[in-house]
Amino acid sequence: MQKKKIRLSDIAEQLNVSTVTVSKALTNKDGVGESLRKQIKDLAEMMGYKTKKTSGQDKSKITGNIGIIIPSRYFKNNNSYYWYLFNHLSTELLHNNFYSIMELIEDNDEKNCTLPRMIQDNKIDGLIILGQVQNDYVQTIHSHFDNFILLDFYTDNPALDSVTIDNFYCSYLITKTAIQNGHKNLCFVGNYKATTSIRDRYMGFLKALLEEGIKTGSSDVLMDRKDFSAEIEIKLPENIKLPSVYICNCDETAAQLIALLKSRGIKVPEDVSVTGFDNYVANPKDSVPLTTVSIKPEDIAVITSDLIIKKISGEPYIKGHHIVSGTIIERDSLRRI
């Protein structure tokens, strides 16, 4: 029988210390007492631990830090969904004895493929790219740094690890929920050119309509932002014939749409229903309680943290695209016809 491969976590568990402490001890880094260092090395040798080589990173330079970069366009007034996710991520990483460092990426730096300062200055062991950036920028990071994962988007490169919400299926489910409540005239709200997440949510919307034999067309989409933009700006044409329900790509878009409809004397859900996605609104008191897709940020944080720590530690993990599921919550914004 093949022997079980010994991991850093196995050694850490035996001594009731963190994997970071074990890694520092085995690579002769500061931050570990000599007595504990010897104990860790002796146990590692006894257990048959084999030192792994990590491409593109010198293990002797371990910092105990994980970087989280966020495009600045997604980060406004400390109320963005990504600020919400960052807080959960940093908490989960701290529980695993890693510190998180956040860096905002300006549009020009992304366009010019300027590496994040934390990579240039060798301040991190691993990196989480939170929020969609251009493919060229991802490839620039990939050419200089191996231990990173994409969060809330993916690319066409299957070699890159990523974590997203189950956008396609959850959008399919919430559209089905609207149809099961009697709605046959539906409109998707979102620019599917902006991000892979919105695009997948639109495709889930289309699947539900096609299965129900509901015709689709260009009038079934209301744009909520410009291409590759995060700023929500909905323009509702005058004298538009309202659908029975708007299926919005996120709760913030839904909240702004409800406010716009209200300014025109259109009531939700009496005159038209609205659904959201994410279960997150910065100012919920200003909006009708939304029927939405609930995604637990704790689930995203646990899966993402586990992946990046295993990459850093050289432990086995499932490579590729990882999906976090969600559930439908029905509230006042969806009327039954």
| Alpha carbon gap, first and last residue | 63 Å
Radius of gyration in whole Å, from Cα?
23 Å
**β-strand number:** 12
Fraction of residues in helices? 25-40%
State the secondary-structure class.
alpha/beta
Strand content: 5-15%
Biggest β-sheet strands, sense, barrel: 6 strands, parallel
Count of DSSP H/I helices: 11
The general outline is: elongated
Structure report:
The structure is a single chain. The chain is of the alpha/beta class and 337 residues long. The protein has 11 helices and 12 strands. Strands 2-1-3-4-5-11 form a 6-stranded parallel sheet. It has a 4-stranded parallel sheet with strand order 7-6-8-9, with helices on both faces. Helix 1 packs across helix 2. The chain is elongated. The relative contact order is 0.13.
What descriptive keywords fit this protein?
six-stranded parallel β-sheet, 12 strands, 15% strand, elongated
SSE inventory with pairings:
Layout: H1 8-15, H2 19-26, H3 34-47, E1 65-71, H4 81-95, E2 99-105, H5 107-111, H6 117-120, E3 126-130, H7 135-144, E4 148-151, E5 162-165, H8 167-180, E6 186-189, H9 196-211, E7 221-222, E8 245-248, H10 251-263, E9 273-275, E10 292-294, H11 297-313, E11 321-324, E12 327-329
Parallel strand pairs: 1-2, 1-3, 3-4, 4-5, 5-11, 6-7, 6-8, 8-9
Antiparallel strand pairs: 10-12
Helix pairs in contact: 1-2, 2-3, 4-11, 8-9
